[in-house]
Design brief:
Blueprint: H1 2-18, H2 22-25, H3 31-43, H4 57-63, E1 122-123, H5 130-140, H6 143-149, H7 166-179, E2 184-185, H8 188-194, H9 204-219, H10 225-228, H11 230-235, E3 237-245, E4 251-258, E5 261-263, H12 271-279, E6 282-284, E7 290-292, E8 297-299, E9 301-309, E10 313-318, E11 321-324, E12 329-332, E13 337-340, E14 342-344, E15 350-360, E16 368-374, E17 381-385, E18 388-392, E19 422-425, E20 428-435, H13 452-496, E21 505-509, H14 510-516, E22 526-527, E23 546-550, H15 551-561, E24 563-564, E25 567-568, H16 574-602, E26 610-613, H17 614-618, H18 620-633, E27 681-684, H19 686-695, E28 702-703, H20 710-736, H21 738-742, E29 758-763, H22 764-775, H23 802-807, E30 813-816, H24 818-827, E31 835-841, E32 848-854, H25 859-874, E33 879-886, H26 890-911, E34 970-975, H27 981-992, E35 999-1003, E36 1006-1008, E37 1025-1030, H28 1040-1043
Length: about 1050
């Protein structure tokens, strides 16, 4: 008892000193772990003096730390995991005071989604549709376009009306932008109707052109004349390309319409310079001379653009995105351009700036689009950034200014100073000007009234929005009411949680208490199964994952939330405590025993002794330690195991009954006897074995006078005899077929031997397997069957012709002399004899030679196989082709021979890669005798298999390399048969930095010109060599997009419904 009092005081002293100290050490991440380890160590310190059979209730309570003092409120910021009585820092701080109602819900105020007074409506960004949103806002603020679009004819409006055509979607979208109560609306209906990919950012300038063109065609079919030409009236202007001959002075003009002027900004500082370059005179001379119809010859001339009329809305595209020939991609020009608020176009009119479209970002393929738009009614400027609308206020208005996204370093280019009435931007890519109007115009002209059917649709949407706002407000209130009730519950129950001395108590999972106090987590029933040991009680190791609470508090929690099984004060497991006591005592004893065994092994001993595995002897301490760890873990929670299950103990070994099965088992043979491998075992004294036996009582025991396993000795002798027989067999077969083994004096079909008219055929696989056996008779299995059925079709016919054997199929077979065939018949089982005969006709004029096979050729299977091979060549995926770049036309002839040679070598390489076991191929199966069936192939190439089998045809004893030899200027590309030539050209562009329209491709002297054709239809097979000749590059970068529509990695609007008229 005195000892117990001392131990209890020791634990209490540690707790009283350590727990309050947490306040000072909370910033040290390891303090909580150190404290838990300290409590764990002190809680079990008594095992040093108490044996398992002496354990009492006081020891069990010490192990479960029942008597540790509870932490005071504010004493520790984190919960003391090792103390089951610490109820501080589990989430109670959020509930033990006055709480703001907003803390009880995570629902935003629905009124924040409501449109502010005297402002505009935003558009939702669906992923990468900011470029669409900017144009929609600009077009919406074009009052004439909006007013005219509202005049469009409409279908009957029903309750569940949904727009169908693109124009209907745009009409409905404009109506919502005008009169919706929402802060922003969803344009997904229009985007879906256009067929745009919301995940990929498209070319904004191309989208503007295509969309306006679509509207123009669609509206031209309307009955209302005001709608038929609204696009032309608003955006269309006219100019002419005027060319003047320098020789005769004749002038010719080619009129053209435009909807926007594309201005080059490279090398310019302001808009005036850009317009001047657009209209400047161009000289046509040299190779670029003009054909004069008056002079009937090419003459030097001048060309310029002459403006005839300008539209009310003038769109100026600043060409910021240009093609970079070196990289093969588009790039963005971050040049500062100054532009005026008022643009004087001379004799035409004066324009006022009405919108600036901006691209934020340094790349042409990513970034963000924003629009600065002027309100036509008030003259105020607004920034439209998807859902966010911001009025641009301040004395000094800065249009077109937005910070770049992900700019690596601060730009070295400083923003130039601008005069009053001018703005400067490095990100503006489109400027929208409108004709300056008089100030005395009728104000009602700016007020656009919605038609009744559109207003009805907007009212329906506003009604849905109001219902949603009310629903969200109700949900917020419900969450507040629920939170207040939870607040009162927690304050009441938390005061009841601590247990007083002498009162009954229960254990509750710590994680459940934390979730109960976390309002964001729905409280589930109490689950104690993770805390159970195999006896259905609280496991000692799980006391840190639980908290001891009063019986009254536990009763109320279970009544409200349910769960179980309940863990009361009677759930402290004395069996687990006893087992832990044994394990801890054994751990201490293990080190002493290891030293004793180590010293005993050094001594000489007399007597028989015992055989011990050397490997087990080297690692017995580790094995014993792992066994103790298993014993320590074996009473872990059972998740519902029967509580009646008990741990069987062995008093003679103090609980070490379940020894490591691996100890000494490596010297046990498969028959259960002593292994015949003497080098793997060691003889130790009886004293050493007795000590080891305490830790491994069920380990296999072999006394020193025990004989090795007789069965193993017999099998060892039989194996030696079998190896001797195999060696004799290999030597005999080698002597009988010496030339076949060394590949000497072999017959060939290309030069038929003079002294015989018949040769015999066997699979080359048989010969290779036989050679393996001859070289290593003890490591390889003898070959018993020839397996000639591999070379026959299902009908029993031969699969090769004499011509195909000469052209490439010979590598599938091996030719034998008649004398060798006689030996083969004696030594091996021959399933089918195959021979090829040379028949010479000496009667007819001149000697003619005919070759036949026995069995005869099966033409039906042969043709079917050839057809399948040709089809495989046209349906390949992920194959390799080689692109060889040539400089001059003359080099094509020079490399033609190399191309053909490389192609044939690549073809041979494919032929020497038959499919292997596991592939689903009708020509590949497993024969009855176990031999592998190789895929037969003729002289036509087959797709290369990922696993190659070395079946090399030998000619004259020289091994030919079948690998494609890459030459200088040649690159390999991965292609598929269904890939188009255009897609191949784009791959070549990235590999060689040659634009697609500068590429001249040919294969075997035949030009490849059809960009829409697939590679399979063009005869491009795997391992083909394609010749590339590059034209001289052009200097007009802007023209490259017009000549060939290439945007990588952009997809553009290829195939989009924008090209369809709805």
């Amino acid at each position: 008892m005195h000892c117990m009092l001392f131990l209890r005081l020791t634990i209490l002293s540690v707790c009283y000193v350590s727990i309050p100290a947490m306040v000072c050490f909370t910033n040290r991440g390891h303090f909580s772990t150190c404290l838990y380890a300290t409590l764990e160590k002190v809680a079990w310190r008594w095992v040093e003096t108490v044996r398992p059979e002496e354990i009492g209730q006081e020891h069990v309570e010490l192990a479960y730390r029942v008597n540790l003092p509870a932490c005071m409120m504010g004493a520790c910021r984190r919960n003391c995991k090792g103390n089951p009585n610490c109820l501080v820092g589990i989430g109670e701080q959020a509930w033990l005071g006055d709480i703001d109602e907003n803390a009880f819900h995570n629902i935003d105020d629905p009124n924040s989604e409501r449109r502010d007074k005297n402002t505009f409506v935003g558009l939702t960004n669906l992923g990468a549709t900011c470029y669409v949103n900017t144009f929609l806002q600009v077009w919406f603020h074009n009052l004439e376009l909006r007013r005219t679009h509202f005049l469009r004819e409409h279908r009957n409006i029903t309750l569940n009306y949904e727009p169908e055509s693109i124009c209907e979607h745009l009409q409905y979208l404009f109506a919502l932008l005008q009169n919706s109560n929402r802060k922003y609306i969803d344009p997904s209906g229009l985007v879906k109707a256009l067929g745009l990919d919301t995940r990929q950012q498209q070319d904004a300038q191309e989208f503007s052109k295509l969309f306006l063109s679509l509207l123009e065609v669609t509206l031209s079919k309307q009955k209302n004349p005001n709608m038929q030409n609204v696009i032309q009236r608003q955006f269309c202007g006219q100019f002419s390309y005027v060319t003047v001959c320098n020789h005769c002075g004749r002038s010719s003009a080619r009129p053209s319409r435009f909807y926007e002027l594309e201005l080059n900004i490279q090398g310019h500082k302001n808009l005036t310079e850009c317009v001047t370059e657009f209209l400047k005179e161009e000289k046509l001379d040299g190779d670029n001379r003009y054909y004069c119809e008056n002079c009937l010859s090419k003459q030097s001339a001048t060309r310029r653009i002459k403006l005839h009329s300008l539209p009310p809305t003038l769109n100026l595209q600043l060409m910021r995105f240009v093609f970079d020939r070196q990289t093969g991609h588009k790039k963005k020009l971050n040049t500062f351009i100054c532009f005026p608020e008022q643009l004087d176009m001379g004799s035409f009119c004066v324009y006022e700036l009405s919108a600036v479209l901006i691209h934020r970002g340094i790349s042409a393929y990513s970034g963000h689009y924003i629009a600065h738009v002027k309100d036509a009614c008030t003259g105020d400027w607004y920034k439209f950034n998807d859902e966010e609308i911001e009025k641009m206020e301040g004395k000094k208005l800065q249009l077109g200014i937005e910070e770049d996204i992900a700019e690596p370093v601060k730009s070295p280019t400083r923003k130039p100073k601008c005069n009053k009435g001018y703005h400067c931007s490095r990100n503006a890519y489109m400027l929208v000007y409108k004709i300056q109007e008089e100030q005395n115009l009728d104000p009602s002209k700016n007020n656009i009234k919605l038609p009744a059917f559109l207003q009805k649709l907007v009212d329906q949407d506003n009604h849905k929005f109001e219902e949603w706002c009310n629903e969200m407000a109700d949900m917020r209130q419900q969450s507040v009411n629920k939170g207040k009730a939870k607040h009162e519950e927690v304050k009441k129950l938390y005061k009841l949680l601590p247990t007083k001395d002498g009162e009954l108590y229960e254990f509750i999972p710590l994680e459940w208490l934390k979730k109960w106090l976390d309002d964001s987590t729905a409280t589930k029933e109490i689950d104690n199964t993770l805390l159970l040991c195999s006896h259905g009680k609280l496991h000692p190791d799980k006391v840190g994952d639980s908290k001891r609470v009063s019986l009254q508090a536990a009763q109320q929690l279970y009544e409200r939330y349910g769960g179980g099984p309940r863990l009361s004060n009677s759930s402290l497991c004395s069996k687990c405590v006893s087992q832990r006591c044994r394990v801890l005592r054994l751990k201490k004893q293990l080190n002493d025993d290891y030293k004793e065994v180590f010293n005993l092994l050094k001594r000489n001993f007399s007597g028989d002794g015992y055989w011990v595995s050397k490997a087990s002897l080297r690692s017995w301490r580790q094995l014993a330690f792992e066994q103790l760890k298993e014993d320590e873990q074996e009473t872990k929670h059972s998740n519902g195991l029967n509580s009646e299950q008990e741990l069987h103990t062995d008093n003679s070994t103090e609980g070490r009954e379940e020894e490591m099965k691996a100890f000494n088992e490596d010297i046990v043979c498969t028959h259960g006897g002593l292994s015949i491998m003497e080098t793997e075992r060691k003889l130790v004294s009886s004293e050493v074995w007795k000590k080891l036996r305490e830790y491994f009582p069920k380990a296999p025991e072999f006394s020193g006078n025990q004989q090795p396993c007789q069965e193993c000795l017999t099998l060892e002798q039989e194996e030696k005899d079998n190896e001797a027989v195999s060696k004799m067999m290999a030597l005999h077969q080698k002597n009988q077929l010496l030339n076949l083994f060394h590949e000497k004096n072999r017959p060939t079909l290309t030069k038929w031997p003079q002294d015989t008219d018949v040769l015999y055929i066997v699979p080359v696989f048989f010969v290779e397997e036989w050679r393996k056996f001859i070289r290593r008779p003890t490591k390889s299995s003898p070959v018993s069957n020839v397996g000639n059925t591999l070379l026959l079709c299902p009908h029993g016919g031969f699969m090769f012709t004499y011509e195909s054997l000469i052209s490439g199929d010979a590598k599938q077979i091996a030719l034998l002399w008649p004398s060798e065939w006689e030996v083969i018949n004696r030594l091996f089982i021959v399933d089918q004899a195959i021979s090829i005969h040379c028949l010479k006709d000496t009667k007819s004029p001149g000697i003619t030679t005919q070759y036949t096979t026995q069995p005869d050729l099966c033409w039906e299977c042969r043709e079917s196989f050839l057809f399948q091979q040709q089809r495989d060549l046209r349906e390949y995926t992920q194959a390799t082709v080689y692109i060889r770049k040539v400089i001059e036309d003359e080099m094509v002839k020079k490399v033609a021979t190399e191309i053909n040679a490389s192609s044939s070598e690549a073809e041979e390489e494919r032929e020497e890669q038959p499919k292997v076991e596991g592939e689903k191929d009708p020509d590949f199966s497993q024969s009855q005798d176990g031999a592998k069936r190789l895929k037969l192939c003729d002289g036509t190439a087959a797709p290369a298999s990922p696993v190659s089998v070395t079946n090399l045809a030998k000619k004259g004893g020289i091994r030919r390399s079948t690998r494609h030899r890459k030459l200088r200027g040649e690159k390999a590309l991965i292609v598929s048969a269904n890939q188009t030539l255009k897609e191949l050209k784009i791959q070549i562009m990235h590999a060689f930095s040659v634009a697609p329209f500068d590429q001249n491709l040919s294969i075997d002297g035949k030009g490849l010109t059809d960009d829409s054709a697939t590679l399979g239809s063009l005869g491009i097979v795997p391992e083909s060599v394609i010749c590339l000749k590059a034209d001289e590059p052009i200097t007009d970068y802007a023209a490259m997009d017009d000549v060939y529509d290439v945007r990588m990695p952009e997809e553009g609007f290829k195939g989009e419904p924008c090209f369809l008229i709805r």
